[in-house]
Structure to design on (71 residues):
């Protein structure tokens, strides 16, 4: 893990409260904290594209900052 950077531990597609698919991303922060964030479909696809992957299963190990690339 890069110092000072949250890393993706897991990512799965799940149904959102409105019925649309969301990408649930579990992060590990540099201080050891773990949290899960829900991304709408468009943002989830953006994250996968920024990381150069074609599925959510390929996201673990990627830096979370990639979500900001291209926004």
């Amino acid at each position: 893990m890069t110092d000072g950077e949250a890393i993706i531990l897991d990512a799965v597609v799940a149904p959102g409260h409105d019925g649309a698919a969301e990408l649930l991303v579990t992060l590990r922060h540099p201080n050891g904290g773990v949290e899960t964030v829900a991304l709408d479909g468009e943002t989830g696809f953006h994250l996968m594209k920024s990381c150069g992957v074609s599925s959510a299963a390929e996201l673990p190990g990627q830096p979370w900052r990639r979500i900001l690339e291209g926004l």
Remarks:
- Residues 7-63 form one domain.
